[in-house]
Design goal:
Distance between the termini of chain A: 62 Å
Helix content of chain B: 25-40%
Mean pLDDT of chain A: 85
Distance between the termini of chain B: 34 Å
Low-confidence stretches of chain B: none
CATH architecture of the largest domain in chain A: Orthogonal Bundle
Number of domains of chain B: 1
CATH topology of chain B: Rossmann fold
Mean pLDDT of chain B: 86
Largest sheet of chain B: 6 strands, mixed
Radius of gyration of chain A: 29 Å
Strand order of the largest sheet of chain B: 6-7-8-3-9-10
Number of strands of chain B: 10
CATH class of the largest domain in chain A: Mainly Alpha
CATH class of chain B: Alpha Beta
Structural class of chain B: alpha/beta
Largest interface: A-C, 37 and 37 residues
Strand content of chain B: 25-35%
Largest sheet of chain A: 6 strands, mixed
Strand content of chain A: 5-15%
Low-confidence stretches of chain A: 1-28
Oligomer: heterotrimer
Shape of chain A: elongated
Number of domains of chain A: 3
Radius of gyration of chain B: 17 Å
Chains: A alpha/beta, B alpha/beta, C mainly alpha
Shape of chain B: globular
Number of helices of chain B: 9
CATH topology of the largest domain in chain A: ABC transporter involved in vitamin B12 uptake, BtuC
Structural class of chain A: alpha/beta
CATH superfamily of chain B: P-loop containing nucleotide triphosphate hydrolases
């Protein structure tokens, strides 16, 4: 591996394409033990920790086991927040609300139903989870469907918790044997009864500890598996760039509500376990202190690490236990407060994050391969093959038509009644001076801006009011001006997530992304983080992601920006090939590039179609020169 | 009078401009030409210390000015950024007054003279700047820069998104300011006519460096250079 | 008789709303002008309360204890800005968490220094009689104080050079520096003023809300929600929201129970956020 690094050019060029794929795989196999452990740390260490906890249960002091049980439960609550915050990007202060609701509801069910089976958990845990999921689903729908800003979403979730806090103070109701007594709380909650039948007995502190550890570990591994798969990948993409994720055709709000509900279910289940542990619940579970402790667990452990929530809960619980006095007395609060400030200022990634960072430095840099990437050379035959296949799968190219499309921002009218129809065959270029409305026009076609009047039709379907992801599913593929890539993901993951949006099948997505990877000549960079690529390479990766969608209409906004002359030539040939199979519209500043496209050119000026024709005619048109150079004799 | 010496800078680790040196003499108007993305705006931001300098510095009257935007402003650099950046939730009057007061001039006097200089702002004096049209915001940004009492004005794409009639008016105003107050001007532009109408000298940038220095006459005469330069 | 009762309820609700506004205004300045959610705002209020209390114990008349409280909180606020807040601009949630840490640290410090129970200072003894009902005079005085405080902040922010600089520095930080504004210094001062206003609130409300380590806590949540619901035109927005939410909650509380009052407050907040995801003043064209 080191050898090939020294002679990058030769090796990439000398090895035939199919062998290059193998090289990438071999590089993967070369991984050292340390690297293998690092990659699966989220599985290995929690397994060890679970094993350790279960072993320790054999000999620890029952009181410590009793206290430590609550740390595990808080860790599980932290995990639910880490899902929505660390992975989903929304700081929810409503997790304790779902936790409390799940706790109350699960406990009420358990009080009434447990006598039937003896076992309590089969009632309380599912009931808590379902109720937690339902309430989170309702709140999440409001937050995500109303497209609230992050601050407002956080505040709304906080308000939800506070509302429950004040309401439960005086909320009194008797349901069967359960008596909810306002601020007197709900007592007589049955403890953890692992056995079944009339004679089953409550577990002792150690038994409860073991049960809680097993349940929490099961949930953790479920989350780990889920967040490692495609679902988790899409959630990551939404956090990094929601717009791009939607531009790939994902209905992002559905994913957001789903993951929020999942987190609600976990919180609700944790609450039900807490009820069984404490045998008592009262409205303080909804209090401000509780709500704000959860983000601290997550931050201390490490945001986005999932396992960090447990580490944080144990670190803080352990600290409080060691300092004596519990979470409110003594100097614990003072120390907690200072720890929190220091964490925010200096240890952004928490304990797990910090250890992971130190460890990562000892490993070979996966991004090293980014430096030896050669110039992108696209084999027209390979591209042709990909496009033919795309046509077989996604159907023939579609027309894109706009009728009297109109958009204004205050007094500025970037799109002023533009009526154009674009058809497959040869590329269309939209040119015009700065501020002519080219990009705005594309954005209205895509659905990033909603027009005030006029219509957009994709194929035969009216898409004027369709959300972005629906237009993408109808066949629109867009590359915006700046490269929109998911920087934290690898090159390979970027392409696969794009391909998966269309194929909905992991194997098929892997095939598509491997072909595009080979076409771009990025095999050796497959495991490189996309953010480590150069600007030009990022542009190519973005184009590759668009091709993964097998779009029937392709919109490219200044694709040549930031590319070298060679790259621009490659791009031009790509666009021309693309136009033989799909409808292609390119917004461009670079007139030389437009000339090489040999297509139809539309000049926009002040939001309107100013002139049309081929580039040779337009280049000699004095009116066009005028608006470009700001000469005003003719305007 | 105003010199940018061996400027190398960019964003993050990416170098956008490399070893650029330009000079603007007292009361001179100089144009900075080149296509989109050649580094004109970056050079302007370098001059204003809004991006970190990898190397190079800025001199006024032979003295090097520290790398702080506020210090540069106080040393006499007035900046009109691309995209205007007026303070949107402040009135037109406040936008001008705050610039003047910060630099030790009377806000009242500055507002009066600005409204005299730019009569189109007068009916809008008490409106929030965010509600003005693009052209009006551009004029306000210029008025604001002038209120700081600059020795040199840096104008970044002042004609972008501005109506032709206002562009002509603006050219007139700039020439008058230059003549009456002796303010030097460095203008980064794509609008060639606008530049030819005010500047006497020009630098042409390409790929982050100055490719050539030329004067108005040769630029006006050489149509080939024009086409090449702007990619037309 | 009915009318008397109604008038009493109205007046006392208005006075509760005013108290909320007094407690909120500093937060509104800090959030509205700097985009910083200061969760330690309540503790600054508490510090103001204790500072005023301590001053009166040393024989300073109450009226002069108030400016002392303001100065103490401003100084602490400036230190906090330089040490913590400055490093976190633009990281909204990090500032929230850091200031929350600060809040619990201050709380615990206050417990250690002053204990959990401290004698309040007597409320000035005058009252207002409406029919058969009598209302304490000092809380009613708060209506005037709230109006004066709002007016003061409005004038400070719109009619002084400092106010213009502060607004410029937060609206376009880079551009503000490019016209010569030393944004760092301006931001420190703005944060200190916000904290000073909290200190003022703590001191002026001392006869009504006795100083305890947790006194800030009672205010900060509602103050915080008020500011977020208010949106970008912070001052006017906060005044309206405080009157609407605080007054409404107080009315609900007097006709029903105090819990119903709180529920009203949180429910209406949630509803307003749903209607106006970016705050009620998001589309207003006005400066403060």
């Amino acid at each position: 591996m080191n050898l090939s690094l020294k002679e990058p050019r030769i090796s990439t060029l000398a090895i035939p394409a199919q062998d290059q794929v193998r090289t990438a795989q071999e590089v993967g196999c070369d991984m050292g033990l340390s690297e293998k452990i690092y990659r699966n740390a989220g599985l290995i260490f929690p397994l060890l920790a679970t094993g350790g906890a279960l072993t320790a249960a054999g000999f620890i002091d029952p009181y410590l086991a009793y206290v430590a049980t609550s740390w595990v439960i808080f860790g599980l609550l932290g995990l639910s927040l880490d899902l929505v915050w660390g992975r989903g990007g929304l700081l929810s202060l409503g997790q304790t609300a779902f936790y409390g609701l799940g706790g109350y509801f699960g406990s009420i069910i358990a009080i009434n139903m447990a006598p039937l089976t003896g076992n309590t958990l089969v009632w309380s845990l599912p009931a808590g989870a379902i109720f937690g999921a339902a309430s989170a689903g309702a709140l999440g729908s409001i937050i995500f469907l109303a497209r609230m800003g992050p601050l407002q979403a956080t505040i709304l979730s906080y308000t939800f918790t506070l509302l429950l806090w004040s309401l439960t103070q005086s909320f009194k109701i008797t349901i069967g044997h359960a008596v909810v007594g306002g601020d007197n709380g709900l007592s007589n909650i049955p403890g953890v009864v692992p056995g079944f039948g009339q004679g089953a007995e409550s577990a002792g502190p150690v038994g409860v500890f073991v049960t809680v550890v097993i349940v929490s570990a099961a949930i953790y591994f479920l989350c780990w598996w889920l967040m490692r798969g495609t679902f988790g990948r899409v959630i990551d993409c939404i956090r990094i760039d929601p717009q791009k994720t939607e531009l790939l055709g994902y209905d992002i709000r559905k994913y957001q509500v789903a993951s929020f509900s999942l987190a609600g279910a976990i919180a609700g289940l944790a609450g039900a376990m807490f009820g069984a542990w404490a045998n008592y619940l009262n409205p303080s579970i909804f209090s401000v202190q509780e709500a704000l402790l959860v983000p601290i667990y997550v931050l201390v452990g490490g945001l986005g690490t999932l396992a960090g929530a447990f580490v944080g809960a144990f670190a803080i619980g352990g600290l409080s236990y060691y300092l004596g006095g519990g979470a409110v007395g003594g100097q614990t609060t003072l120390i907690l407060g200072i720890v929190l400030i220091l964490l925010v200022l200096f240890l952004k990634n928490g304990l797990v994050g910090a250890v992971g960072e130190l460890w990562r430095r000892t490993l070979p840099d996966p991004n090293a391969a980014a430096r030896d990437a050669g110039a992108v050379l696209i084999d027209p035959a390979v591209l042709e093959g990909i496009l033919v296949e795309a046509e077989e799968q996604a159907g023939p190219a579609k027309r894109l038509a706009t009728v009297d499309l109109y958009k204004h921002f205050g007094g500025v009218i970037p799109v002023n009644k533009v009526a154009r129809t674009f058809e497959p065959g040869r590329p269309y270029s939209l040119i015009g001076p700065n501020g002519a409305g080219k990009s705005s026009y594309l954005k209205v076609c895509v659905g990033i801006y909603m027009p005030e009047a006029g219509s957009v039709t994709v194929g035969d379907v009216d898409a004027t009011n369709a959300p972005i992801f629906e237009r993408v599913r109808q066949g629109i593929g867009v590359k915006n001006q700046k490269p929109q890539i998911f920087g934290e993901l690898t090159v390979d993951e970027n392409l696969s997530i794009a391909a998966f949006a269309r194929t909905r099948d992991r194997q098929a997505a892997a095939d598509v992304s491997r072909r595009i990877l080979a076409m771009l000549g990025f095999e050796r960079q497959a495991k490189v983080q996309a953010s480590a690529l150069s600007h030009g390479q990022q542009q190519w990766l973005d184009i590759g992601m668009v091709l993964c969608l097998a779009p029937r209409v392709v919109l490219l906004d200044e694709p040549a920006a930031g590319m070298t002359n060679e790259e621009t030539r490659e791009l031009s040939s790509l666009v021309r090939t693309l136009a033989r199979h799909t409808t292609v519209i390119v917004v461009e500043h670079d007139m030389e590039f437009v000339r090489t496209l040999e297509g139809h050119v539309t000049v926009l000026h002040q939001g309107q179609v100013f002139a049309e024709g081929d580039i040779a005619a337009l280049r000699t048109d004095d009116r066009v020169l005028d608006i470009y150079l700001g000469r005003r004799e003719h305007v | 009078m105003f010199r940018v010496v061996n400027a190398t800078g960019g964003y993050g680790k990416t170098v956008i401009i490399r070893d650029v040196s330009i000079t603007v003499e007292k009361a001179e108007i100089v144009a900075l030409l080149g296509r989109n993305g050649v580094g004109k705006s970056t050079l302007m931001r370098f001059a204003m210390a809004l991006i970190p300098a990898f190397s190079g510095h800025v001199e006024i009257d032979g003295h090097s000015v520290p790398e702080s935007p506020a210090r540069r402003a106080k040393a006499g650099v007035g900046y009109v950024p691309q995209g205007r950046y007026v303070f949107p939730r402040m009135t037109v009057t406040e936008n001008i007054a705050v610039a003047a007061e910060t630099n030790g001039h009377s806000g009242r006097v500055a507002v009066e003279s600005a409204l005299r200089e730019f009569p189109m702002l007068r009916p809008k004096a008490d409106d929030l700047a965010g509600g003005l049209s693009g052209g009006q915001q551009q004029v306000l940004a210029l008025a604001r820069a002038l209120a700081t009492g600059p020795k040199i004005l840096l104008l970044d794409e002042p004609t972008e998104g501005v109506q032709p009639s206002i562009i002509d008016e603006m050219a007139g105003i700039l020439k008058r300011i230059n003549r009456e107050r002796g303010v030097a001007i460095l203008v980064a532009e794509q609008d060639l006519d606008f530049c030819l109408s005010i500047a006497t000298r020009a630098y042409v940038m390409e790929k982050g460096s100055v490719r050539l220095e030329t004067d108005r006459e040769s630029l006006r005469a050489d149509r080939k250079l024009q086409q090449q330069l702007l990619g037309v | 008789m009915e009318l008397d009762y109604l008038a009493t309820v109205l007046l006392s609700s208005l006075s509760s709303a005013s108290i909320l506004l007094i407690a909120t205004i500093g937060l509104a300045v800090v959030f509205g002008l700097m985009g910083v959610i200061n969760l330690a705002h309540g503790e600054f209020l508490m510090i103001g309360g204790y500072a005023a209390l301590t001053a009166t114990r040393y024989g300073v008349p109450f009226i002069f204890a108030i400016p002392i409280a303001v100065l103490v909180t401003m100084a602490i606020g400036a230190a906090v800005e330089v040490l913590i807040i400055r490093r976190l601009y633009g990281r909204l949630f990090d500032t929230m968490l850091a200031t929350w840490g600060l809040s619990i640290a201050f709380y615990q410090l206050a417990v250690m220094i002053f204990g959990t129970v401290t004698p309040g200072i007597g409320m000035p003894q005058y009252s207002l009689k409406i029919g058969n009902y009598s209302l304490a005079g000092y809380p009613l005085l708060m209506i005037g104080v709230a109006m004066l405080a709002t007016l003061f902040v409005y004038v400070l922010m719109t009619h002084t050079v400092y106010g213009m600089k502060a607004r410029a520095a937060i609206q376009m930080p880079e551009m503000a520096r490019a016209i010569g504004i030393e944004s760092y210094r301006v931001n420190t001062l703005t944060f200190a003023i916000g904290c000073g206003l909290a200190g003022f609130a703590g001191a002026v409300l001392l006869p009504i809300v006795p100083a305890t380590p947790s006194m800030g806590f009672a205010f900060v949540i509602k103050a915080f929600l008020t500011v977020v619901v208010a949106g970008p035109v912070t001052l006017t927005g906060s005044a309206l929201t405080a009157i609407g939410l605080g007054g409404g909650a107080s009315m609900t509380a007097s006709f029903m129970t105090s819990v119903a009052g709180d529920a009203f407050f949180f429910l209406i907040t949630a509803f307003l956020l749903w209607l106006y995801p970016l705050g009620i003043t998001a589309r207003w064209r006005s400066k403060m």
